[in-house]
């Protein structure tokens, strides 16, 4: 559930019809702000809200651009820009030594394991996979946008795969790491 909550603004943006991209960006912003507020009320620190905070910034900028010029060239590349932004946020979190998945994992893991090397290493690997998936998705979506297919069924499938593949990897990798830790 934590990953769904983390990526909920992006899901909302993805389901709003492309012709109303400015409303999709605004909806993404509102959902991101709501998720941050809800998580902060439960005591979650901003260090565990890296993706959510980056999402709010992205959607604020995208909404401003989209409402200022609904026919902006950015529209054709908005899905590619979304995935590129996710890759950037995830990559920067790795470079900063705070993989974004660490904050998500801490929500369901006892505090005594948070600083253990295997726990941190698992999250570095998972965040690396998410970063690569987002970057590959951004590249594929940019190529589709360049070919005039940026909002096609193919683009939708690519975008969905950009979330499903790393999610499946995460579930399997965590299960494997937990099984190894029990041995």
Automatic annotation (TrEMBL):
Keywords annotated in UniProt:
Membrane, Transmembrane, Transmembrane helix
Membrane-crossing segments per the record: 20-37, 49-68, 74-97, 118-145, 157-175
Q: What is this protein called?
A: Threonine/serine exporter-like N-terminal domain-containing protein
Organism classification: Bacteria, Bacillati, Actinomycetota, Actinomycetes, Kitasatosporales
């Amino acid at each position: 559930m934590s990953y769904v909550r983390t990526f909920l603004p992006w899901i909302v943006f993805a389901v709003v019809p492309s012709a109303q991209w400015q409303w999709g960006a605004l909806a993404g912003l509102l959902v991101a702000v709501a998720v941050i507020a809800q998580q902060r009320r439960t005591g979650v620190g901003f260090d565990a809200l890296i993706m959510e905070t980056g999402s709010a910034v992205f959607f604020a900028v995208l909404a401003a651009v989209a409402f200022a010029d609904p026919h902006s060239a950015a529209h054709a590349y908005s899905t590619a820009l979304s995935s590129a932004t996710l890759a950037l946020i995830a990559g920067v979190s790795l470079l900063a030594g705070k993989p974004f998945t660490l904050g998500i994992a801490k929500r369901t893991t006892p505090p005594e394991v948070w600083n253990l090397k295997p726990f941190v290493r698992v999250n570095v690997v998972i965040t690396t996979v998410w970063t690569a998936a987002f970057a590959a998705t951004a590249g594929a979506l940019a190529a589709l946008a360049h070919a005039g297919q940026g909002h096609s069924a193919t683009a939708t499938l690519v975008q969905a795969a950009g979330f499903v593949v790393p999610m499946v990897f995460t579930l399997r990798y965590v299960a494997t790491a937990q099984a190894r830790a029990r041995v």
